[in-house]
Amino acid sequence: MKxxxxxxxxxxxxxxxxxxxxxxxxxxxxEIILIVPExxxxxxxxxxxxxxxxxxxxxxxxxxxxxxxxxxxQDDQEWKDWLNFDNCESYDYKSQTG
Length: 98
Prior knowledge:
Order of helices and strands: HHHH
Distance between the termini: 36 Å
Strand content: under 5%
Low-confidence stretches: none
Largest sheet: none
Shape: flat
Number of helices: 4
Structural class: mainly alpha
Helix content: 40-55%
């Protein structure tokens, strides 16, 4: 199973980011996914622009997004493992109820 680390950082001078993971050996190849949050102003403008589109165009866009997410979750083994995780075995209900 892949290790996952959630980090937040700031873009430095020269449009650089710095990530430090002391638990990983030097030279190890890793995958990085960057999520750049939108500002509230941009989100509002984008939502307004989306609402102005004809209903057929909105449906087309939403269908494409739903299909992309479906493909992502169908192919992601970590997601499947998480969905199939049965934590009832490791949780003692009797000790929690009295």
